[in-house]
Structures are given as structure tokens and as C-alpha cells.
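Appendix B, record 7
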Amino acid sequence: AIFAVTFLLILVGAVLYLYPASRQAAGIPGLAPTDEKDGNLPDIIASSSLHEFLVNLHEKYGPLVSFWFGRRLVVSLGSIDLLKQHINPNRLLDPFETMLKSLLRYRSSLNGDTGESHMRRKLYENGVTKSLQSNFALIQKLSEELLAKWLSLPEAQHVPLCQHMLGFAMKSVTQTAMGSSFEDDREVIRFRRHHDAIWSEIGKGFLDGSLDKNMTRKKLYEDALTEMESTLRKVTKERRGRSFNRHVFIDTLLQGNLSDQQILEDTMIFSLAGCIITANLCTWAVYFLTSSEDVQQNLYKEMDRVLGKGPITHEKIEQLRYCRQVLCETVRTAKLTPIAAQLQELEGRVDQHTIPKETLVLYALGVMLQGSSSWPSPYKFDPERFSEESAMKNLSLLGFSGSQECPELRFAYMVATVLLSVLVRKLYLHPVKGQVMETKYELVTSPKEEAWITVSKRS
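C-alpha cells (predicted):
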């Protein structure tokens, strides 16, 4: 709960602190402040997460709602039709970048020249594209290693899916972002320890200041940040001005006109966000495949037809249309990232209502991804829905496909495609009977507890 609330707090703190508070609700349906000082913060905490708070709010008041964060008016859009109306030249705030840079106290791109920020963003995106192209064989090798590990297990043994996918994502991201020094498992384990220490605090402490009051926790968190930053600085120094066999993400940043601090920040963001998104996309995709034998068999048939017995190639990925549909439906069904946000810098209108300037506008993506008007049988895992162009267009509008998808998600789609091409052609993926999967809604949606599966070899 605190994680989701923290995200909203950080958005307000990082972006809106310069503006005077607006008390004009503009007639938009929604909640009056529960508390004069905290607004509807108690209601959000009582709902367990910001996503679940928004689900309840939109069910009660409709697709356009308002509530109060402290003395700040917040408007939430809960339908794709309203999203289409909210065409706005405002800057889209990347939830990962805004949140992580605020928590890490990185300020160099939260403010400043728009042209410079745009240049830096393009460099970041190019870095992801080039590193994927250069490290395609590496991702395939890591997928094969995971397959070999699963094949070595007794057939009835339960596989800890979240744990294995996070390990796989860590290896993929660190080696793709920072190079061959992370081929050493000891370096990956050290990175994971620091990564886990940081992410364990991104769910607590930043809202109520409890981290600052607990010196043991604060030291563990700050030590993890210091160690990760030290590692990134070391990699930057080692790769600056040198040529390597594999081009990695940090190499693109080194070729740009960035300061050492900017290189550090962008590599940190890609490493943190890339790991979390990739791990959870792969986890949910495999989990949903275990629950649908038909989808798994259809995916196997496409892999067999397009790839035969040969390895996947960069060129053949475009032919794996059903695989892309499976991943799109995974994003939709899991509500992979349930919140996005924009600052209403100028007064705007949506559905006959005026949105005052300096209002934080939330896109309740988790609500939109389950709306029955846009998605027939919204709670069913059905990749066939994305054979329709209209469904792909809706997903693109929400930022999960096409030109609007974030670089970390684009990276995750590619890695997940390679992984599935390796696993599905060699294994049957089975659910564990009686397992009840509960969901944890944070900035990225994940299983609340470990997700267990079993595997068996295809004959």
C-alpha cells in the first residue's frame, strides 16, 4: 500500500512542489478530503494500494474522478475514450524515472532544459535498441541455461518461478547494460543483494519518514546505493574510450554528450527498472501459459512452424505474431504497470469538465486494461483478442505497444520472446494444483507470494 502511495507522493513532490495548491475541483465527481491536511491519503492506505483505491473510486463515480492528495487536487481517467480526449502537449512523466530519480535524489533531468531532456531520452532509447541487437546471442544463451536447469529437475518438483525469473532478468540486464564483468555470478549476486535492499525500501519509509528514524535500515539502504553507484562508476571508467566485442547500454551513453553523473543515473534507472519489468513480464507470461493448455499449444505450433528446430533470430521475431499477442495479453491481464501520470500544465477539458492547470492527472491504466467496453470478457486470458487491430491500437494508446512503449518494456518484450522460444519448444509448463495467486499492486504488478509451477519434457 505504501509503495503505491509513495509513487503518488513522489510525483507531487518531484514535479508540483513549485506550484501553489489548487482547491478547485471543477465539478468533477469524486471524494471530498477525508482529512484537511492529508486529503484522501487515509482512504488510499485503507484500500491497500493506489490501484485498488482507483478501481473502487471509478466503480462508484464513473470514468472521470477526482480526489485530494493533501491540499492537491488529483484527477484520474479510467477509460480509453477519456484518454483519447485528453490530448495534451504536456510532458509524460515516466513513472519509473520520476520515482527512482526522486528516491535516489537524482535531479539532473527532473528539471531543466526540455531540448536537453529530449536529447538525453533519445540517447537512452538508442542505447536500449543497440544493446538488444548486440546482445541477442547472449540473451539466447542465458535462456538455454535456464532451460538446462529446469530439465535437470525431477519432473514433479515445484519450480519457484518468481525467483528464477528475477535471476534470469538480473543476468540479462546487467550483462546487456554493463558488459562482461557481470558474467561472473559473484558480481550478479552482489548486484542482486544491493538491488533487493533498494527495492525493499521503495515500499516503506518514504511516506512517513520511518526510514530516517531507523538508523539500521537507513544505513543498509544507503550502503546499497553507494555500492551500486561505485560499481557503475567503475564500469564507466573501464569502458570509456575503449572498444569491446559486445556493445552494451553504457557504451551508447559514453558516446553521447553526457556528464559522468548523467551516465550514472541513466544506467542505474535502466538496471533497476529493466530488471523489475523483465522479471515480472516473464513471470506472468509463464504463469498464464501454465493455466491455459490451448494457448501454450498454439504458441508451440507457431514456434515450431516459424523456427523449426533452429534457434530464434532477430529477423524471425517479427513473424512470431501469436507470441506477441501472448505477451500483450500478459501485460493486459496482469495490469503490469497500473498507473501513469501527466501534469496538466495548462487548463484543459475532458468530457465537458475543466481540468484546472497544475493538476496532477493520473491515467488509471489498471482500470482501463480491464474495462469491459474496450475488452470483451476482460478477466479472461485470451491472446486471440490481439489479432484485432482495434485491440492493438487500444494497447498502444495506453503506452504498452508501438511508439509509446517505454524502453524498459521494449527490452522486456524482446527478452521474454527469446525465453519463451527456448522453453516452450522443449517443455510442457504445468500449474501447481490448489495454488491461489494473489496480486501485489505496486509500480509494477507482481505475485504477492512465490508462484510455483512444474515442468515436463516434450517428447
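Remarks on this record: The longest helix spans residues 260-290. Residues 1-6, 14-22, 203-208 have pLDDT under 50 and may be disordered.
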